Amino acid sequence: MRRITITSLGLVAILAAACTSAGSSVAPSAASPSAVAVVSSAPSVAPSATPDACAKASLTLVTPGKFTIGTDNPAYPPYFAENADKHTTPPWEIGDPTNGQGFESAVGYAIADQLGFDKADVTWIVVPFANSFAPGPKTFDIDLNQVNYKTERTQTADLTKGYYFGNQALVVLKDSPLAKATTIAELKDYVYGAQVGTTSYDAIASVIAPTKPALVYDTNDLAIKALGDMTIDGVMVDLPTADYITNVQVENATIVGQFEGGTPEYFSAVLGKGSTLTPCVDAAIDSLTADGTLDKLASTWLPFQDSVPVIKP
Amino acid sequence: MTQTVRTRRRGPDPRAVRSSAIAIVSTVAVFGLVGWVVVHAPGWPEVQASFFNAQVFWESLPGLLNAFVVNIQLFMIAEVFVLAFGLILAIMRGLAGPVFLPLRIMSNAYTDIFRAIPGVLVIYLLGFGIPGLGLIDPRTDQRIFGIAALTLVYSAYVSEVYRAGIESIHPSQEAAARSLGLSRFQALRFVIVPQAVRRVIPPLLNDFIGLQKDTVLVSFIGVVEIFRYAQIKSAATYNFTPLMGVALVFIVVTIPLIHLVDWLVARDRRGAPVGSTR
Hints:
The complex is a heterodimer of chains A (313) and B (278). Chain A is an alpha/beta fold. Chain A has two domains: 56-165 and 266-307, D-Maltodextrin-Binding Protein, domain 2, CATH 3.40.190.10; 168-259, 3-Layer(aba) Sandwich (D-Maltodextrin-Binding Protein, domain 2). Chain A has helices spanning 2-31, 33-41, 103-114, 199-208, 220-228, 239-249, 278-290, 293-301, and strands spanning 67-71, 122-126, 142-148, 157-159, 164-166, 168-173, 192-195, 215-217, 234-238, 253-259, 265-272. In chain A, helix 4 links the parallel strand 7 (192-195) and strand 8. Chain B folds into two domains: 2-39; 57-270, MetI-like fold (Orthogonal Bundle), CATH 1.10.3720. Chain B has helices at 2-9, 14-39, 44-51, 54-94, 101-116, 119-133, 142-168, 171-179, 184-199, 201-214, 226-237, 241-270. In chain B, helix 4 (54-94) packs across helix 12 and helix 5 packs across helix 7 (142-168). By secondary structure, chain B is an all-alpha fold. Chain B is flat. Chains A and B meet through helix 1, strand 8 and helix 5 of A and helix 2, helix 3, helix 4, helix 6 and helix 11 of B.
């Protein structure tokens, strides 16, 4: 008995010590919200990235000479595309990032091209979502995984400027009474689902604010399964994923509409906190935006944006 | 004799003092060393900011506690069903006589199967399988499937605990009860089961602790309980501290129970010899 008590006391003491000292080390940044605000308004804190610093030879890379891009597996369309013969380069499933097809694959190669890498010098690796911000050395140079920019996230990782600006969309079954809804007021009394860790879940609460608690699944596929079983009435996803679900995954599903307003959401590339590469990737995204490349890629791979009705409040 | 008593009264036993001192020194040394190594690891500042962030902790705590209400609902309701269903299974298993063979087989097969299948699979199969059958309202609250799955799994374990308790009651108890004119059911109801249950309270509490922790598995079918809430918070902030908050909540809830079990076991050891009643 006494031994157990001493053990638990020791554990509690260690936990307490860890938290207290964390408090003191974190407090300065928390106490000065202005510092956080600066980060949020200008993700590229170091615009001093001179062309020289971003020259291919002076970049600090995970594997020298190679540009390593992470994303999750399976790599879903329309962000990644299947090969015509349905075979993928191992270990990839469904979509194949290495073929340059699909929106994020194309964006990845475009960024690499801006930084001076040939297509052959780009390596894709599997990075599950939680690993992209876990402490410790990163296995990727940048991670492209439909990650929405959030100010809180920038305390742990670098998030670049947006390479895609998109809305959330609601997917329901075609024969559901929801399918004909045009206003948010009509959406209140239903059960919705989303994938864990996505801003889609936040959107359910902040945009629809339904009367029944939402269900949160490990993957979009499980949420879609629940939709098919009518366990939930609708799935909230980003618009490109909604398009893929309704066109490929679930035949009798349809998009009710997309949600506008609030803070616009955009996808950012994830880098290790304070990475020297971040200003260079920001600069690359800037020039890809300026020369219209990102718009062109979006209209090639995500061409349905304007055809989806906007749900009014 | 008096000599011995006087020496004892002079102060505490020096050997006890010495062993206490050694215990304290070695405890401090071991925990100090572990703590020192962790704190001086090269990645510690990053791990600390990621796992022990006080700001994120205090921001997520109210939501965590709010979500924990769902876990409490799950394990309190499931525990009631588990205790009842487990006892029925144990009694089915212990029925003597050839007529009851089918019941014994059923109970046997049940405990075998549900102790073999990982709990999370049972939750998955119920949560995603039953609504697809179209037999019941598919919008049935997912918490009900969670409670049903936890009941199925834990009653298999608990029935084995009950069975061990029932078998530990000496056969003379039943013989005596029957000789007093009690029927077989009455002997079970008033003599065997009360003694058996009292004897197995510590292992029953152990299973209750297991059940409490396994409520987080219900998150797999979409229910936003404490673990899923922490995952959501963790993804939103890119910080693992909410998950440490879950660990802390479970420590606070289960450690008193664990110590209650230890205390009950210790009391049993000191208590009456096997076979007697209290």
